[in-house]
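Re: Re: ligand-bound prediction request (bumping)

Still looking for help on this. To restate: I need the protein modeled with heme C bound, output as structure tokens. Inputs repeated here so nobody has to scroll up.
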Amino acid sequence: MRAVWVAALLVAVTACGALFTEATPDADLFDAPLDGLSATELGAFARGDAEFARPFSVREGLGPIFNDLSCAACHSGDGRGRPDNVLTRIGSPADGFLAPLGGPQIQSRAIPGASPEVVPMGVALSLRLPPPVFGVGLIEAVPEAALLALADSADTNRDGISGRPNWVVPADYVPGVASARRIGRFGRKGQTATLLEQTVEAYHQDMGITTEQRPNDNLHPDDPASAADGASDPEIPAATVAAVVAYLRMLAPPDPSAETPDVVRGRTLFSQAGCSACHVPTLTSGDAPIAALRGRAVTLYSDLLLHDMGPRLADLRPDGSATGTEWKTPPLWGLRLMSRFLNGQAFLLHDGRARSIAEAIEWHGGEADRARAHWLGLSPADQRALLAFVGSR
Ligand code: HEC
Ligand code: HEC
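Reply:
Sorry for the wait, this slipped through. Here it is.
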């Protein structure tokens, strides 16, 4: 009798072993490299991966004020963050009065001996859930002309939708920037144009790590003790910044799941409801520093443009040329796997307030009012099919 039990147990243990040792296919990961990279590029990818995951210590230059210890701490598994790593932006970067308040972002943590920032009175607050970082190299490689072709700021086709680009002036360390403005594509309001700037500013603002581009520590405006994080500046070499930028560029978006009859029907409903007017299924990349990024279909479900989403989603905080009611259409790729990287949970929209795809749709307003009304008018079976489609991307 006992022997039978032992045998059964052994079988169970080996079966589990087999289950757990099988590697997740790349198509199901948020941190897989693009197809078609050279061996040298894959080496750079691995170096950047390690830097993205690297937690900084005080000795290595963390702080004095900061939000978290590593890039990966906020971008869970290279996907979106959770409400506990939401960033608080204050006021409008255009307002001169922000400098004395310590800049546009609240650093809520500090190293020993320094004080964290507190939210000042009377400024507009905007909570920002960290977006996923996979596929951002492809997003960077979409030519400006392709985005301008989708823009319709005056709503000349009278569909109630008037996407417009966020024109931003990149930081002076971005190469070739003398020609001034570019279309921003990163951040919840598309307020950043390049991955270099996104990375340098994340090191500086989110982690308090100085670089050749930003060699001075970010200090608490009225806490002189915060000047001392001990490490000499720049705290990381230019090669580290370059490795992280290269890593971000080479991150592949996950593949959508297999088509089911519901998914196929959901795709038609998605376009009939007007979702695809903003969540544009496919863009095409142009030229890029990495061959694997050039001329690729970018199936992101976004136009990367700004839309007025109405008062319920408004943060009343302008950013670049984005107003207080505008948000950049977020890509929908990778939603299939979102909850796997968030302990089975879902956090959607700019501040993570929606706990399901259906809830996210119901928050839509402004230019998306018609699409929301269309969604509300669908039969339960059609709603299920639409959700199956969006949730399969
Ligand atoms: C404290 C949390 C936090 C840390 C640490 C952090 N990020 Fe982010 N990241 C965010 C948030 C929040 C946004 C969106 C910001 C906004 O919209 O204002 C963002 C945006 C981004 C984006 C733009 C994605 C897109 O498609 O819009 C990239 C790329 C990125 N971060 C990379 C990095 C890198 C690289 C590091 C480390 C050097 C890093 N982040 C560290 C929270 C964080
Ligand atoms: C007018 C443009 C527009 C239309 C039309 C539109 N959306 Fe959106 N969608 C947005 C914007 C902008 C956001 C981000 C809002 C925010 O973060 O506050 C968004 C957010 C989302 C999100 C959350 C994504 C995330 O990562 O948090 C989902 C899901 C979504 N939309 C699905 C849909 C579906 C399904 C439809 C059609 C019924 C639709 N949208 C119609 C612009 C649009």
